[in-house]
Write a structure and sequence with these properties.
By secondary structure, this protein is mostly helical. The protein is 52% helix and 8% strand.
């Protein structure tokens, strides 16, 4: 009888243990196929390039804990980084995850290396340092790495500038970048970034552009600098050829360009100004076109193709003066003589006074 009870206990124990294993397997199967239950919200998992298992697991877990509402995040960690594959084997990149994905699907996505692209907009960048900051916020490598690459490759990124001061050489790097929004992988390096954008610039600047530049008496570099000034003067692309023609007239007549955006660029003020002060016009900078004739030594803005085309196809007229229109239209009044210009200037100054924009 004792043996009977002993045997029954052993059988019961085996049955219970087996039941637990079966229940665990069933639960695991259900969980591995169940969604994250985060209301379909999308979030990103960033797998770093260093491929250290602990760093990769931390990157995955941080995103899951932060975004998933499922109570089984630990289970996800076990399934994704332990049962399926060692975390350091996942290809680096940015992966977009939504709440309707299961652990198995997440694993497949990470394992496949099918990372999503990152968008970076550069048509609103004025300096190489601002570009470095933008790069560091968008991609895996930081702004310091970006600037290190720039400093070590100035002969490539800003050719024929080795006799210029270092700061101007750095700024000249922007001339070979066309303002636009680009899609690249999060793991893209500064070398990848410049290689792609410089190639696009070379494809844009054809022999036809060289012919147009020679007709207006400018080099490729000078066209880019003037386009950046036009970009600084107006966001109205329809008006850009008119403004380009005005500055070409001034250059031909050996006049000071007297462009307010170049003055503010030279000062490098962090203030958002709607009015250039009289003291600003005396600030000694190679970019101050109220003090120095001709074009400044480098671009003051990354420009879109449309602004370069506006210079290459500048409007032909006799205007040599312009002033912003009152009312915040974003447009300008143009004049052929100083007396007419003064009338427009007084009207604009009165408008600024009326809305309390200080000198």
């Amino acid at each position: 009888m004792k043996n009977y009870f002993k045997n029954n206990k052993k059988v019961a124990a085996v049955v219970i243990a087996t039941s637990f294993v079966i229940a665990f397997i069933i639960a695991s199967y259900v969980l591995v196929l169940s969604p994250l239950n985060s209301n379909g919200k999308e979030f990103s998992i960033y797998i770093p390039s260093n491929n250290k298992s602990a760093d990769v697991e931390k990157a995955i877990l941080d995103s899951l804990y932060k975004n998933a509402e499922s109570p089984s995040v630990v289970f996800y960690k076990w399934k994704i980084t332990s049962l399926f594959k060692s975390a350091d084997k996942f290809p680096p990149g940015k992966y977009t995850i939504s709440g309707n994905l299961s652990a198995r699907t997440i694993f497949n996505k990470l394992n496949s290396g099918s990372q999503e692209a990152v968008s970076i907009r550069i048509d609103n960048i004025k300096t190489i340092y601002k570009l470095a900051q933008r790069f560091g916020k968008k991609f895996e490598q930081d702004s310091a790495t970006f600037m290190s690459y720039v400093n070590n490759n100035l002969d490539l990124l800003a050719p024929n500038t080795n006799t210029l001061p270092l700061e101007i050489r750095r700024q000249r790097v922007l001339e070979r970048l066309l303002g636009d929004t680009y899609e690249m992988y999060w793991t893209s390096s500064p070398e990848n970034f410049f290689s792609r954008l410089n190639t696009l610039y070379d494809e844009f600047w054809t022999n036809e552009q060289d012919v147009l530049a020679s007709r207006i008496g400018l080099t490729q570099h000078e066209v880019c600098v003037l386009a950046s000034i036009v970009r600084g003067e107006t966001a109205n692309k329809d008006e850009a050829p008119q403004i380009a023609g005005l500055y070409l007239n001034r250059l031909k007549q050996n006049m000071l360009l007297q462009s307010d955006p170049t003055v503010l660029f030279g000062i490098n003020t962090k203030e958002k100004r709607q009015r250039v002060r009289h003291a600003d016009l005396k600030f000694d900078s190679p970019y101050n076109t109220y003090l120095y004739k001709g074009l400044p030594p480098a671009t003051i803005h990354i420009v879109e193709k449309s602004y370069i085309e506006a210079v290459l196809n500048a409007a032909k007229h006799n205007y040599i003066f312009m002033c912003a229109q009152p009312g915040g239209t974003g447009k300008h009044n143009f004049a052929v003589n100083y007396a007419e210009h003064q009338q427009y200037a007084r009207a604009y100054q009165q408008y600024l006074d009326s809305i309390d924009i200080q000198r």
